[in-house]
Write a structure and sequence with these properties.
By secondary structure, this protein is α/β, with parallel strands linked by helices. About 30% of the residues lie in helices and about 20% in strands. It has 22 helices and 29 strands. Strand 12 (about 330-335), helix 13 (about 350-365) and strand 13 form a beta-alpha-beta unit. Helix 2 packs across helix 3 (about 105-110). Residues about 1-5 and about 200-205 have low confidence and may be disordered. The structure holds adenosine-5'-diphosphate and zinc ion (ZN) (2 copies). The site of one zinc ion has 8 residues, from loops.
Length: about 750
């Protein structure tokens, strides 16, 4: 027998896509030729579960021995890769993430892989059929095909593109199909070739845009960033909306492209990508790859391969693109870094911004965080000089900063939520042939349906929450568990037909505005009106077609859109969130208001913002209006420090949920008791307490919060808690989740 084989490791530790914190041991069968080739990062097929069921796993380590008796360890069934499917760098990142977030290692690794690879497919581009004209086809008279119009058109195109052939992309543009080609192939006029798919080169034949001359602040920012382009360095580009942050990225990207580096640009939501994409395409003559959740598994794998092999230089992606394998990554940009959608809210609860920074550190490359309303976390890091703080306080070009005005609602007669003054200002704006944006962060027609006779309120069967009325869809919809039922017209308690709605949502406001402003197009942007794939694009197109228009929408409006003719922004209810029980409520409200306000007057006309409020003298509203977000945030940070809240302390919450009312709470109570003897003095536990919406989707929910000024102490206690929970929930129907650095704590 070959000597080297004898010294090879005989076991592998495999991570499986299951919610367990351990890896699984398997034997490497002696007979297999690949025995010495098996390495961490390769996928294997292994027996798992009852009967002859199998699972795909990822090899985490090889070892000479197993902790289990050899007879119990099953052999792997097959090795799926000839080389690791995940680079060492990402392998380390996933390992780190599993430890930091105390999440089952298999789920972390599988989250980092595209779905097709999780299922065991090969990491290869799909192949496409290309058509070429044959020698015979080239010399065939087109007239001979006069009775077969489609064939004639196809052959003509094939003759015209004799050099390069017809790609599927070109065929779809020319409206040619494969069936026609097959008929011509039978006649010997065409031949086909299977080619591996790569980004269609047609997509970046755009006109190049001439970049504007940078202003002073932009120049300083760009120079600073370029000075640190070869090392790990975190910069916070803190620039008001319209200050030219994107322009700064583009300059830095340009320099890095010239150094043959790849750039990962992360954006919070797919809605933003088409606009960002167009701007990038008009500047750079290079392949840009998109990564987001609206792609098919096949498209994602192709994009993944393009980036891994270094063919795509710029990647624009949402949260999970932080795990994309790269050939020579040179910079990670996180646009709108404050956005909560960077944090995954279920399962593996990672924060893509924080992981991106960790990844950049491993690669020794810079990270650029950008926002008009930076998170308190990033501001605290900037204040402590851990991040390089770059400020842009002027609007780029000749745009001016919008003016914020409070509209006192106290004692006013309101018309469906609008004060008379607000309506008058809207009228004046429309008369100048300018546009108005109305912001209300509540979709649907009304948040509540009530009975006039008995006071009955329509609530969800599965949650402790009211159902929202959606008139157009004729439905009652639960925004917490997504269940819905038909809209009722009679009270189920007393039979009365006097049902009425309380409060307003965007759907109702749209209707009201249609009555007040009959001549003006009213466009609604929220999750309901943009469900269809191209709906958002269509709405934004309409906005650009008309001078006069009113846009009504939820927080979707706050994100990155550019509406040059909007000069008035109305915030219907500035008080929402101000008095929320979550300590992040203020931060989030200020970010939202500032972002929405930033939509006003982005071109040369000055914008105005009206904040309708019942608390015009409230410190927070006063500070935000007169001094702006930075001053507001500095106040907020001082308060967090006094109260020992994040980012000055480190926090984690443990959530438990079960069908039975007291079970989740009981479990956490017991955990607290058992844990408290092992904890360091500076660790503070709060709870367990019930979630604000206790029952959601039929599950009763409770939380336990842990806090410490020392990250190490917090992590040690979560590790203990995780172990305890895994043991104590084994045969119970209780689910638990660990959320490190949670954004929500209720
Ligand atoms: P932000 O990303 O901060 O919102 P953008 O980079 O999108 O800002 O810039 C806002 C607008 O100003 C864009 O239309 C952009 O083309 C323009 N712009 C940016 N920088 C300059 C500049 N130095 N001179 C003139 N126009 C500029
Ligand atoms: Zn009733
Ligand atoms: Zn519900």
């Amino acid at each position: 027998m070959d000597e080297t084989l004898l010294t090879q490791d005989a076991f592998v530790k495999v991570a499986l896509n299951v919610p367990l914190r351990s890896t699984f041991d398997y034997k490497i069968p002696k007979a297999l030729a690949y025995r010495h080739a098996i390495r961490p990062g390769m996928r294997v097929k292994v027996p798992f579960g009852k009967g002859d069921r199998h699972a795909i796993g990822l090899v985490i380590a090889t070892s000479a021995s197993s902790d289990y008796p050899e007879a119990q360890v099953k052999p792997i069934t097959a090795l799926l890769d000839d080389s690791p499917i995940i680079s060492q760098e990402l392998f380390d990142l996933c390992h780190w993430a599993a430890r930091y977030y105390h999440h089952p290692i298999g789920e972390v690794f599988f989250h980092a892989l595209p779905v097709s690879l999780r299922k065991g497919e090969r990491p290869e581009f799909r192949t496409e059929t290309w058509w070429f004209v044959t020698e015979q086809g080239l010399h065939t008279e087109l007239e001979s095909l006069n009775r077969a119009k489609l064939q004639k058109a196809f052959l003509e195109a094939a003759q015209q593109h004799a050099d390069h052939g017809l790609s599927p992309h070109l065929m779809s543009v020319l409206e040619l199909n494969n069936n026609t080609a097959k008929s011509l192939e039978k006649k010997g006029l065409l031949r086909s070739e299977q080619r591996s798919f790569k980004h269609a080169p047609e997509t970046h034949a755009h006109q190049r845009q001439v970049p504007p001359t940078l202003n002073e602040e932009q120049t300083v920012a760009t120079k600073t960033l370029l000075a640190h382009s070869d090392e790990f360095h975190v910069a916070l580009l803190d620039g008001i909306t319209g200050s030219g942050k994107t322009e700064v990225f583009l300059r830095v990207i340009d320099a890095l492209l010239k150094a043959d580096k790849q750039i990962l640009v992360m954006v919070p939501e797919i809605g933003l990508t088409p606009q960002t994409l167009r701007r990038f395409e008009s500047r750079f003559n290079t392949d840009i790859v998109l990564m987001h959740s609206n792609m098919t598994d096949r498209e994602r794998l192709d994009a993944w391969l393009m980036v891994e092999q270094g063919d795509a230089k710029i990647i624009i992606g949402t949260r999970s693109s932080v795990f994309i394998p790269t050939a020579k990554l040179g910079l990670i940009i996180i646009d709108e870094e404050h956005d909560a959608s960077y944090k995954q809210h279920e399962g593996f609860r990672y924060h893509a911004r924080d992981l991106a920074i960790k990844r950049a550190q491993g690669l020794n490359i810079p990270v650029l965080l950008a926002s008009a309303t930076p998170s308190y976390e990033s501001l605290a890091n900037a204040l402590q000089k851990r991040y390089h703080w770059l400020k842009l306080r002027q609007r780029a070009g000749d745009a001016q900063v919008p003016e914020m005005e409070r509209v006192d609602l106290r004692g006013q007669v309101l018309k469906q939520g609008f004060s008379e003054y607000t309506l008058e200002r809207m009228r004046q704006t429309l008369e100048r042939k300018e546009q108005v944006l109305v912001f209300l962060n509540r979709r649907g027609y009304a948040p509540t349906l009530m009975c006039h006779q008995c006071g009955w309120i329509a609530d969800c069967d599965h949650c402790d929450a009211n159902l929202t009325v959606h008139k157009r869809a004729n439905k009652l919809h639960c925004h917490h568990c997504d269940s819905h039922k038909a809209l009722l017209h009679q009270c189920p308690e007393c039979g009365s037909d006097e049902l009425f709605t309380v409060g307003e949502g965007t759907e109702q406001i749209e209707g009201v505005l249609n009555q007040y402003f009959k001549q003006t197009p009213i466009l609604r942007i929220d999750r309901d009106s943009t469900q269809r794939k191209s709906a958002l694009t269509q709405i934004t197109q309409k906005i650009h077609e008309h001078d006069q228009a009113i846009l009504v929408g939820t927080q979707m409006l706050a994100k990155g859109h550019h509406f040059p003719n909007v000069t008035l922004v109305v915030i219907m209810d500035a008080d929402v969130g101000l008095f929320s029980s979550d300590f992040r409520g203020m931060e989030r409200t200020a970010q939202l208001i500032t972002q929405v306000a930033g939509r006003a007057g982005r071109a040369s006309k000055r914008g105005h913002v009206l904040l309708q409020t019942y608390h015009p003298e409230h410190n927070a509203i006063e500070c935000l209006c007169s001094q702006g977000y930075e001053a507001f945030a500095m106040d907020g940070l001082r308060e967090r420090q006094q109260l020992a809240l994040p980012p000055f302390q480190h926090q984690a919450v443990i959530r438990a949920e079960s069908q039975h009312e007291q079970q989740a709470m009981g479990l956490l109570m017991q955990l607290r008791n058992d844990l408290s003897v092992h904890l360091s003095d500076d660790l503070q536990m709060v709870g367990p307490y019930a979630a604000i919406i206790v029952r959601k989707a039929g599950q009763h929910r409770a939380l336990l919060s842990l806090k410490s000024p020392q990250r190490g102490n917090l992590h040690a206690s979560i590790a203990l808690a995780a172990q305890w929970l895994e043991q104590n929930t084994k045969n119970q129907r209780i689910r638990f989740a660990i959320d490190v650095d949670p954004l929500e704590t209720f």
